[in-house]
């Protein structure tokens, strides 16, 4: 058997299903763990937008930038510190149960107590109107976030589940128990678990066929299911630890891939690290550019989606389609990326994401401009509906390619660096690039809506957002080209 465990497989199976039969006892539970985590994430991610755009008093797409910038971003920093503290104090097992229990409890409380009583516990429209009149315009869209506080909490918790459950709990655990010979084979196929996102989107679409109080009841049922799935996630984790890992054929600590110590980097230290290295700075530009571009694009898409949907269930059905499309493109991209990474250069593979987002994004914005100029029909279809369909497709394709190709090539770019620079660089890029990208996109929108034109609607700034979208994408592509030259030089020196 080769070092990667593929030698005894046929050529086709080594590409599509390089898993030994005895390894299924380990691979399948881990896949189901990822499946349920992604199902929960897709469900709450879709519902959080519905609450903000259709249920919140004085809510709408404009409220999302305020939420991401002033509530999600600082909460993510605090929660990351709390998670690290729990991990160092209690270890991985207890931390997993503590975190999962917290989410299960919140979703249960939201479904049974908060959501049915929002009219009693939220600020009234009159109170928010008075606050808007007395507070500076800077707070115009912050006030609805405070007034609709339970929806704000749900939004924060939904965003946090994606970061903690997928990014930390699952992959931290996978790195601990996956043998060196399993890494390449298992990790690539875990993307199949994105079927969980597809089924979540499908489930949400089905629930959204009803309207009014029946739809509200369906939302409560779905959130209760989500709470139950958090408990199932804990059960699967318990099963893997006490049954799967007790089998020496499936788990041997000496054969597990050593986990690299993650260097924690603060903002100021991260900034110093990035500006001191042209190589790391270009990686940072790649990372923050994606975050800003996808946020600017989704802002216009969600505002358009809100405008042309007449009810909460109709909007939710459209959001559910995004989860379905994203799951499909992620799975397809996972298999295609295996070939593209092997046949094409690092530069070509890294350029695919920004070029695809630029070309596809132009088609969406083109339809939006055509609609704004009075166009109603294009190729025999209504322009608003066509723009929505194209926008949903663009969003799904961009995310699918990003998860499977962009993230991979970004990780590859750190490999030629020495261990210390690699550890510090990854820490700096994660803090300033990853989180900064989301905050940066939100900050741009927030300034337009709360500073430059207080109380304006997001679609009024489509032209400005489009120009910024294109400029940042060009900077992204330019950075890829510059970085590829440095990357090839370092590869030769390694």
User: Main sheet: which strands, in order across?
Assistant: 1-2
What is the arithmetic mean of pLDDT?
A: 89
User: What's the overall geometry?
Assistant: globular
Order of helices and strands: HHHHHHHHHHHHHHEEHHH
What's the total helix number?
Answer: 17
| End-to-end separation | 28 Å
How would you describe what is shown here?
This protein is mainly α and 494 residues long. The protein contains 17 helices and 2 strands. A two-stranded antiparallel ribbon has the order 1-2. Strand 1 (377-378) and strand 2 form a beta hairpin. Helix 2 runs parallel beside helix 9. The radius of gyration is 23 Å and the shape is globular. The model is unreliable at 1-6 (pLDDT under 50).
